[in-house]
Amino acid sequence: MNVLGEILKILDWKMEVPQPYGWFHLLCCALTIVITVVICVLCKHKTRRQVIAMVFGTAVLVAILEIYKQLNFTFSYDGNEITADFLWFAFPWQFCSMPMYVGLLAGIFRKGKIHEALCAFLATYSIFAGVCVMLYPVTVFVDTIGINIQTMVCHGSMITIGVYLLYTGYVKMEHRTILKALPVFAVAVFVAMTMNEIAYYTGLLETDEFNMFFISPHCTPSLPVYSIVQEIVPYPWCLIIYIAAFTLAAYLVLLLSMGVRKVVKKIYRRNEKVDASI
User: pTM score > 0.90 for this model?
Assistant: First the structure.
């Protein structure tokens, strides 16, 4: 009996591919909301060290699940032998992979401007990316239970950690927060661009799919909405639009959180006045 092969079969346990807004998707959305609320309420007054530990711990969990994903995608067992074939399209350097790296780095760089920038990214860009996938999970579901759980934990945790950092005030709800987060996003995009060019010039694209951040000018456009821009706008400008659009979306997340805070404060003050007049 091939023990390793049997383990691979268990890790590749099948299910019917979940449909957007089907029971699996809705359950994951509900769990994300509940977990986010519980963590924000129970862990609001944690110390700085405890907040960092939560961010780092979440990143470690996501990293472990990412390792499982890579193993599942790379190795297969047909009952007789184990075969390996690395799927380059699943290389872990997509927009939604960034919170894993950023969270780990935030645990390493525990103070200073780098730490602030990393956390600001988690509370802006990361929330937006997580919400997009949780609301429109058309391309993330497969027929493997573990992979579906992995992708929902990954994207759901992006929302949970980001909201938690804003709710506790660890990341300040102020306009300059987006300016702190922007360099992190810019570095991530630059690395993705570099990887895409290397894939092109080494001939990898002749046999495999490799399109980090879905911004490669050498691949067929596939990112929703942005793919339309890629087809009609020259590449350099296309890239500028990409960075500007995601930065605007991340900034809107920040503005929304600031607006919610103002509304909550007004309601709280109004209740205080009512209580005082009784």
Answer: yes
